[in-house]
Amino acid sequence: MTATRSARPTAPAHLNALTGIRGVAAWLVVLYHIRLSLTGILPADAIAVMAKGYLAVDLFFILSGFVLWYNYAERLQGGGLAEARLFLWRRIARIWPLHAVILALFVLFALALAVTGRDTAGYPFAELPLHLVLAQNWGLTSELAWNHPAWSISTELAAYLLFPIVVSAVRWQRLPTPALLALALAQTVAIHLLFALGGHDDLGDAISSLGLWRCLIEFSLGNLLCLLWLRWRGRKLAAAGAAAACAAVVATGWAFGWPETAFVPAAFAAGLMALALGKGALIRALGSRVPVYLGEISYSTYLAHYFLFIVFKLFFVDASLQVGWPGLAGFLVIVLLASVGFYHLVEKPAQWLFNRHRPRWPLGAKSLPAE
Q1: Which of 21, 167, 186, 307 is the most exposed, fewest CB within 10 Å of its CB?
Q2: pLDDT for 248-295, tens place per residue?
Q3: Dist CA 236 CA 241 (whole Å)
Q4: Domain boundaries, the chain
Q5: How far apart are the first and last CA of the chain?
Q6: What percent of the chain has pLDDT over 90?
Q7: What is the three-class DSSP state of 53?
Q8: Are 120 and 113 in contact (CB under 8 A)?
Q9: Closest among 170, 283, 168, 180 to 231, alpha carbons compared
Q10: Strand ranges (DSSP E) for 13-165?
């Protein structure tokens, strides 16, 4: 999703950095999922860093809340039910077609395993309808199955369904800045308490039971972040202040040995605010052509890489399950090329088709920006 496309006539160009960081985050998830096959070529410290790649999903949730508020909140507040239905149709057009294609590939793969007498425990056909409608991570299953990364898309769909209600529930723009800051702080505390009460210190724990709440809280944190950004953009030293806050949160968390649930969401929120407000070298680099393109195809990268690695290991990796440097380079190229192909041959055409043939809503629905 490109962060610069907005319901407003013009979106500040530096928001391209938010699209760029999405591309970086998607590749961190790729490295996270293949890390255990790289222990033969990378030091333990590098593997340990990759093992935290699941935190990129938390960045996705906050960023998604920010971008959707920026793009849609104003229209939804004035558009009523017709606008809400159009918003939801746009979001389904954005996420479901590629999900359906990747899921179909998994089904074919599982059928091939079954026919050849191999284990299909990771592909429960009884749960397939839940995965098809992206409801698999709404507390209805006990563990991840089929395309594991799609759990977060399932929870995002829940956030999309609630988003028009949240937008219309309160005149958020009228709330004073201290109130918005207090609500944002409450969200970061809430996610820590949610995990702590279950005895969990890592945001990647208990995805089947806590993943939905993790998404909803961080998505709403992104909403609040956008409301604050709309007030602070253009102010001198605002970006520096956000960057300093990010550094302070990270330093405090490390110094006191806090669990990641206690400080990572706050650090991500402050860091994203710094990127959205800033205009420095890092922002220009993330907003340059290559990172922005990687961000645009990041949904394909994120959703396809897990299946691609399963198939890659089947054909190119021996019983040690270790990948050498040539194998790593080859797999990363495969993921990149597949991402480009899925984006241009599935994502964009499907969006166009869905939006061209959307249901005939009652009069009064205005067009929303395609993403």
Answers
A1: 186
A2: 999 999 999 999 999 999 999 999 999 999 988 999 999 999 999 999
A3: 9
A4: 13-356
A5: 6
A6: 85
A7: coil
A8: yes
A9: 180
A10: none
